[in-house]
Target: SDR family NAD(P)-dependent oxidoreductase
Amino acid sequence: MNIDLSGKIALVTGATGELGRVMIRTLAKCGADVVIHYRSNEARALELQQEVQSMGRRAIIVEADITSQDSIMNMKAKVVEQLGAVDIVVANAVVQYQWTSVLEQAAEDYRSQFESCVLQSVFLAKAFVPGMIEKRAGRMIGINTECSMQNFETQSAYVSGKRGMDGVYRVLAKEVGGHQITVNQVAPGWTISERDRKSNSERNEGYEKSVALKRRGTDQEIANAVAFLASDLSSFITGAYIPVCGGNIMPSI
Model:
């Protein structure tokens, strides 16, 4: 049984980031044509585009501000013009900021997390779900985090944004399920990425002790979960928050 995304068009926001790059490569390897979204790193987006095209897949790069509905709607217009209607949307982008305590965290940091987690999800749905409804098929996949269940010190802005995102996705799953559109979330743990490999910082014994599998996961393992949810193999899964963190968190029933 293989994951076959042939004939599908997949959009990944924040595609030039550590996890986004691997998601793009993995979706392309599964046969999808891809939309590489970026905000500022055009050079890396172009490199990724060339890499995907060398696989024989179509790939375009699109710049957009994921906190702006107008910008996302402009991105949609470019994608439809150049590739066609999007089948798979992966909301991976998030604004980065310095974590600190609730008492010291700037109000703007809470605002940036709300805009890049909650509003991004809303704007992407408004832009791309109508096309999925027309085809009676589609995949909306949000990248959440294990932090949403940890609620550790200094996580408040990030957790508040991702928990808000979780609410949007659960409600959206019920609203569009009748159109055979699935809406799910992947929640990575502290993941090994290209940056860690270059700096030889893959190991962290303190963190690994709390993980059931006693190791950190990899960017490829996150991308594998995304590819599964993007495929027909996940056709009866919707409204799910799926931790990909080696058992570091375990949602209860």
